[in-house]
Specification:
alpha/beta, 2 domains, TIM Barrel, seven-stranded antiparallel β-sheet, globular, 21 strands, about 475 residues, nicotinate phosphoribosyltransferase, about 20% strand, single chain, six-stranded parallel β-sheet
């Protein structure tokens, strides 16, 4: 495994040096990693947490790292000596991968000596922001496919090898059933899928001969790309001709792939041709600049497509290329002292942070559907035998009362005292958990256009702490 310790911004190191020089090395800090609300995102699917844990567990500055930092002439030898034995010794809490989250809810909470907690910021954001972004995009693509299988096809358009490999992993957590990425398949035991390119067809004297050669190689997995020349006049008829030859030899074809043109019209025509030729079970796969909006539109038009290959717009999350996750200080424990909640203020209400060491509880109705989330201070508990009233964190007059309900804390300990205590499940279990998570929400919260706003409220205790801190800061600053 690569040592990614220097995968950080310089200012993390300069701040660490400053903390050390100011005698703060024994102070403990709490940081929350979360994403903010924006005009596109309604929910996110948490991903990348296993790789984040690998990073934290492997933290160590090698000799060449120390030598490089010394060459910058920014740090004295006492700081460089500190880095030689640097390890993570704190606590880290996170929601399990595949958890559905909403703006302002912590994906990760770090409680550790301030130098350690500060240093984790950049790498954790880099790892979790990317995979969560792609898992979320994949979840929306899979939702639009409405039960059809989706293949992740984005490696060639991904922004580098790591984005391609870990993007494929995240896409499967989000809902894709397979990937074209062979390395991702090997590393994460993801089913791999693929057919042939237009270049295969163009390398033979005729389309029919290209199809026939491919069918001979893969008689039980024959899925032919039919739009190299003319989809309906050449591609589909030649595919049917080869399919008949396969059947005569005791094999059944898998189907065809459409990669261009009017996919709704072509798929309906191709379906009719395949059915009339006696191949009603041959599937039709579609690819070519697809995303959740295109798939949803094609579904509405009655397209006869069974399998979707989604590449560029998935692996790059084309309509929202960054999650916008942030990592904010929420509490300090000075050496030998108790908790001091911290808050960041802003003229923009959305950028005012929630103070304190926190936990998020998900509230489920009697039907098992998620109804709301409540952000609480870590020492709070909820008595489900009593009615629970929650209120909007800004428009406090908006209230909801639950009587027949259950709750679930979302985050779990991953590291305690610097030791990993959480065992990450196999990827297929993460995928199953993510599917159950999405199923627990009403469709109104998941629709692509104007989704209903899911309730994310603050407990009364947290709300009071936040209000008091805002008042204190405003008074101090006139």
């Amino acid at each position: 495994m690569r040592n990614l310790t220097l995968l950080t911004d310089l200012y993390q190191l300069t701040m660490m040096n400053g903390y050390l020089r100011n005698g703060k090395e024994k102070d403990v800090a709490v940081f929350d990693l979360f994403f903010r609300r924006n005009g596109i995102i309604s929910y996110s699917v948490a991903a990348g947490l296993q790789q984040a844990a690998d990073y934290v567990r492997g933290l160590r500055f090698e000799e060449e790292d120390i030598a490089y930092l010394r060459s910058l002439e920014l740090f004295d030898e006492s700081f460089l000596d500190y880095l030689k034995t640097f390890r993570f010794t704190g606590d880290l809490y996170a929601v399990p991968e595949g958890t559905v989250l909403f703006p302002e809810e912590p994906l990760i909470t770090v409680k550790a000596p301030v130098l350690e907690a500060q240093f984790l910021e950049t790498a954790l954001l880099n790892i979790v922001n990317h995979q969560t972004l792609i898992a979320t995009k994949a979840a929306k693509v899979a939702s639009a496919a409405a039960g059809d299988s989706v293949m992740e096809f984005g490696l060639r358009r991904a922004q580098g090898p790591d984005a391609g490999v870990y993007g494929a992993r995240a896409a499967v957590i989000g809902g894709c059933g397979s990937t074209s990425n062979v390395l991702a398949g090997k590393l994460f035991s993801i089913p791999v899928a693929g057919t042939h390119a237009h270049s295969w067809v163009m390398n033979f004297p005729s389309e029919y001969e290209a199809f026939r050669a491919y069918a001979k190689l893969y008689p039980d997995a024959c899925l032919l790309l039919v739009d190299t020349y003319d989809t309906l006049k050449s591609g589909v008829p030649n595919a049917i001709r080869v399919f008949r030859e396969l059947r005569a030899e005791g094999h059944e074809p898998k189907g065809i792939r459409l990669d261009s043109g009017d996919l709704a019209y072509l798929s309906k025509c191709a379906r009719r041709m395949l059915d009339e030729a006696g191949f009603p079970d041959a599937i039709i796969c579609a690819s070519g600049d697809l995303d959740e909006y295109v798939i949803s539109s094609l579904k509405a038009q009655g397209a006869k497509i069974d399998l979707w290959g989604v590449g560029t717009k998935l692996i790059t999350s084309a309509d929202m290329p960054a999650l916008g996750g942030v990592y904010k200080l929420s509490a300090l424990y000075p050496a030998g002292g108790g908790e001091i909640p911290k808050i960041k203020l802003s003229d923009n209400t959305e950028k005012i942070t929630n103070p304190g060491f926190k936990q998020v509880y998900r509230i489920y109705g009697a039907d098992g559907k998620a109804e709301a989330d409540l952000i609480c201070l870590r020492d709070e508990s909820i008595d489900v035998t009593r009615p629970l009233t929650i209120f909007h964190p800004v428009d406090t007059w908006k209230t909801t009362t639950f009587t027949d309900y259950t709750v679930r804390p979302l985050s779990v300990p991953v590291f305690l005292g610097g030791k990993q205590v959480y065992e990450f499940p196999p990827l297929f279990e993460v995928c199953s958990y993510a599917a159950c998570e999405k199923e627990s929400f009403w469709e109104e919260y998941k629709r692509l256009i104007n989704p209903h706003v899911y309730k994310v409220d603050l407990s009364q205790k947290l709300y009071d702490v936040k209000k008091e801190l805002i008042a204190e800061i405003r008074e101090e600053n006139g």
